[in-house]
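Lecture 7 notes: from sequence to structure.
We start with the chain below.
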Amino acid sequence: MLNKKFTLNVLSAFALTLVTNAVFALTPAEQTGLNISIEAKKRDIGWQDSSADMLMLLRNKQGQESIREIKIKSLEVLNDGDKSLTIFNKPRDVKGTAFLSFSHPVAADDQWLFLPALKRVKRISSRNKSGPFMGSEFAFEDLSSFEVDKYSYKYLNDEEVNGVMSFKVEQYPVDENSGYTRRIVWLDKLEYRAQKIDFYDRKDSLLKTLSFTDYKQYLGQYWRADVQSMVNHQNGKSTELRWSNYQFKTNLKDSDFNRNSLKRAR
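Predicted structure tokens for the same chain:
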């Protein structure tokens, strides 16, 4: 059952966002883009915590492939962004590597990487969030949870993607250290699930496209894509994430997500 206190607090934050933006007289397209994004976030609250297995497939321009086996744990946080712990299990050269991320709606995210070969925890600087994560085509900032206040918005039009009619919304990062000038996101009109995201670099050139496929619903409410494919249009490389074994409400605690948990992660 959805935690009522949690829901009310989150919705109150959304209401504050609407009021704050109204003061600055958003255009109809900006207000519509904001409203769509708020609705998408509202539909994905109350899952509390989750864990999942993931295969990360790295492909170079020539199509050569390497595979990594990963465990992901996530914690939903009241009045803040989500927390996540990413643990690499295979192959041997990355085994034991762990990544901890605390997302925040407005402030810079807190992120740390544990490198077992060095036996130390490295903090990821805000200025380095646009760098590649573990040699993949995902940047560190791509691994943060979606928070409404991280962007300003503009609704563009409706468009069919993956065979479904979708809202097409432009998002502009608020963080001055973002590696992107903007993102264009397609959200299907029925369930508000992300279907595709185009990322534009600091020169406003198309850099990457992230596609979401094979959605499944959990707990009768929460949708997760089994496959996420990131294609880099500028270097010809790609990274595919294949998710499996989702579990929700497993009683993960805040103490499972701290710097000490990086070193003992399994």
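Points to note: The first helix runs from residue 4 to 23. The chain has a mean pLDDT of 90.
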